Amino acid sequence: MSTNVPLQTILLVEDDTNDVMLFRRAYLKCKLANPLQVVGDGDTAEDYLSGRGKYADREAYPLPALVLLDFKLPRKSGLEVLAWLRAQAGLKRLPVVALTSSRERSDVNRAYDLGINSYLVKPVAFDNLMQLVKALGLYWIVLNENPDLMQEGRA
Amino acid sequence: MASILIVEDDPLVAESIKLQLVDCGYQVAALVRSGEEAAEQAQALCPDLVLMDIMLAGKMDGIETAQKIRVSCDIPVIYLTAYADDEFFRRAQVTEPYAYLLKPGTPREIQLAIEIALYRHNAERAARTVLEKAVTERTTELEQARRRIASILESISDAFVSLDTDWRYTYVNAKAGELFGRKPEDLIGKHIWTEFPEGVGQPFYHAYHKAMAEQASINLEAYYPPWVRWFENRIHPSKDGLSIFFHDITERKQSEELIQRQLDMLHALYAGAHKLTESMDYSAIAQSVTHLCVKALGVQLAWLGRADADGSVSLLAQCPEENTYPRRISVRWDESSQGQGATGRAIRQGVPVFNTEISADTNFSPWRDMALQEGFHSSAAFPLISRGKAFGALNLYSPVPGFFTPERIALFQALAHQAAAALVNTALYDEIRAHVTELEKRVAERTADLEATNRELESFSYSVSHDLRAPLRTMQGFAQALEEDYGAKLASTGREHVQRIVAAAQRMDILIQDLLAYSQLSRAEVRLKPVGLAAAVKEALAQLDGEVRETGAQIVVAPSLPEVMGHLPTLTQVIGNLLGNAIKFVPPGATPSVSVWAEERGGRVRLWIEDNGIGISPAHQARIFRVFERLHGVETYPGTGIGLAIVHKGAERMGGEAGVESGIGKGSRFWVELDKSPRAKNP
Predict the structure, then answer these.
(1) Of B29, B68, B137, B242, which has the fewest Cβ atoms less than 10 A away?
(2) Which long-range contacts does B423-430 make (Cβ < 8 Å, 24+ apart)?
(3) ipTM of the complex
């Protein structure tokens, strides 16, 4: 991986500021270099992804290579955001990983029905969170071959 | 010696013939000269033969005379002729002469002619006598036969007539005359359709014509409206006409019709009764009973009354529905004057009550005028009885006095019994149905309550799963961050406090996860299918790999384990908890040693998990399967107190049981019992 190429952005959709802080801490401790963008609710996530408002500035807010999505969000749930995203022509291939506290079978199955790429449950122990973040970075940023996001892969 | 009469007007010829005859040995009875004389003498003397001169002087010639003699006496005639013209011969032929003699003939010729004539005459007379005798005999026979037939035709009970081909009576027997109201002899020769014009066009008319035309016998039973009677006719055609036997079958027909009517009534009753037992609708049954009485059993009005507790009789159903009589009258079944009618008494006494004529029934006085206006003449009431007590009555009215004959009473009573049984059944059925409906309603309500509770529980466990764990993550995460970032600045007590916070948060997380597992087990759908115990044990052991390695536990699983009816994830959870406990609850310093095997018990399979652990006092064995029941402090044996509750609930959800055999210090033998898989081979 060449250092000249800007690193791909990861977007975290999470409303709990405590969780955001712990995630950032684990992210730093794991020495992940990719820029991390955070939005606190579903509506903002859609704004970011579709480049509305201040998010039109893709220099400051680049389209992410991976979305980490909590499900329990104020107003618009994570599952709704996922459904919306899969319906957008320019976004539908974007890898989305659920990062939520729910183990409910109905949530898990619904998420896969809507096209989630992976489903992770937030660990309580911080050490476990560290392991999770490390694995995420390795798998989704380094190992995983990402799709083209433009329509029909012309780019 | 034959005597001969000679008729000859010429005296000479006469004498000559006489001499010749005498010579030939004949006796001459007389000798006459004229025809008149000859006829006279022939009659008087009765000669054996007449010799007749054809040409006689006088009024009658020979031929005429011969004719006369022939008619009056049976005497052969021989003509004597000198000559004769053809006209004479032609006339003579008619008189059938025995011979012609030409005058003068030789004695020999005369004798020959006479002998032949006599012989022929004798022969003819003999033949005639035989014939006459035969004719007489046959005539007598015929007469006898005729009389016999007539006597038969007169004596038979059937009427009999015969008609010729012109439809005229040729015979009418006395019985027929009696039926016709005519003298038989007056009808003979008369034209049938002239005498009985009202019969034209009737069935018999067509049958007679058909029989005549087709020459085939016809039997016909038909009603003859002009006489308001039924007749049976047996019509036999011949070339000469028709012979018709007939008799009045009106009575037979009437009794047949009566029987048919009774049969129809029975059929109607049967069909009605069948319908009654089929129906489960109270008012429909009441309705069809009254309908049956009117439409099939011939009453004018039928109504069904129920005996109410206050002594009144209320109308349940009536037929015809438009009749206002049942609504206008007031009937009771108590001892009041309105309770003295048939209905009231039938209900009180439990027996049918009827009258033959309403106007003569003193008990009927409260309703008489109204009833007579309706045209009722007789009425009857039949009690509807259940368990020996009348609960109502079937009330019937007829315009016919004496309509309620013993047969009809019996019939209607049978119907009333059927109706009562059907009504009682239906009432019971309605009661049961109402009860069932009530129960169903309650079940539905409870189910809805339970479903609501279940939904609440689900949302509760959802929020437990999410919201309760979020602060734990924060506590744990920041406590660890505190320790990492500021641990150096903390005293050892401070660091221990932080570690306790982390440990408590972790324990609470496990607790929440166990509770979630338990509540999911309670409400998740568990679909049973054949599951291998070996697979479940293997899976459970894989999940416990860490603990097994950590403790160095010896786990011996029987080489073959049978299949059971279960749910693999649940079964794995159950076995995992039991194995986990077996490894965990050992005395300090001891190495866990666990055996797993199964045994078949009837249609069930019991999986045993035996350990060398600390054992459980029998006093506590019942408690340990309940949620949050712990026998040891968290410090000694960590745990949430939910594991065995999961075992118990899981076994229960799979239609099985779980239990334990143990004693303090003796190790424990936990078991789970489930239905054997139907696929399992018999041992």
Answers:
(1) B137
(2) B423/B282, B423/B285, B423/B286, B423/B384, B423/B392, B424/B386, B424/B391, B425/B277, B425/B280, B426/B279, B426/B280, B426/B281, B426/B282, B426/B285, B427/B282, B429/B280, B430/B280, B430/B282
(3) 0.76
